[in-house]
Amino acid sequence: QVQLVESGGGSVQAGGSLRLSCAASGYTYSSYCMGWFRQAPGKERERVAGINPTGGYTYYVNSVKGRFTISRDNAKNMLYLQMNSLKLDDAAMYYCATERPPCSPSRDYGYMDYWGKGTLVNISS
């Protein structure tokens, strides 16, 4: 049974940082692409970042480039999203998701096979 459990969300002031984590279990984690998505109230879910199975290729949506870093630890079945210089527009529910191979770190949410339940990020001014 595939499980993805996010953690690390919370409330932070604009300009601050948060580190999200996603613990994966129930499948061959090191063979799957991973991604972080977010959805704000009234908006569509969007991919924030993606990473290929080895971690050698990453993708970021333009709005977070230079501020967010996605990484994975295949030995621990963990996915991370380091978020720096947070802006008010970054406030959303953040989801961890995975895509079975063959996969791409940049595909939109319709291609993902499994999802976590999300962790909420609030940004205050």
Strand proportion, as a percent range, falls in: over 45%
Q: Classify the secondary structure makeup into a structural class.
A: mainly beta
Q: Report helical residue fraction.
A: under 10%
Unreliable stretches: none
**Number of helices, where a helix is a run of at least 4 consecutive DSSP H or I residues:** 0
The count of DSSP E runs of length 2 or more, i.e. the number of strands, is: 11
Order of helices and strands: EEEEEEEEEEE
Radius of gyration from the CA trace?
A: 13 Å
Shape: globular
What would you call the quaternary organization? Answer: single chain
What keywords describe this structure?
single chain, mainly beta, seven-stranded mixed beta sheet, four-stranded antiparallel beta sheet, about 0% helix
Question: What's this entry about, in short?
Answer:
The chain is an all-beta fold and 125 residues long. It contains no helices and eleven strands. It has strands at 3-7, 10-13, 18-25, 33-39, 46-51, 58-60, 68-73, 78-83, 92-99, 114-115, 119-124.
Structural overview:
The chain has no helices and eleven strands. Strand 4 and strand 5 (46-51) form a beta hairpin. The strands form two sheets. Strands 2, 4, 5, 6, 9, 10 and 11 form a seven-stranded mixed β-sheet that branches. It has a four-stranded antiparallel β-sheet with strand order 1-3-8-7, with no helix packed on it. The mean pLDDT is 97. The protein is globular. With 125 residues, it is mainly beta. Helix content is 0%, strand content 49%.
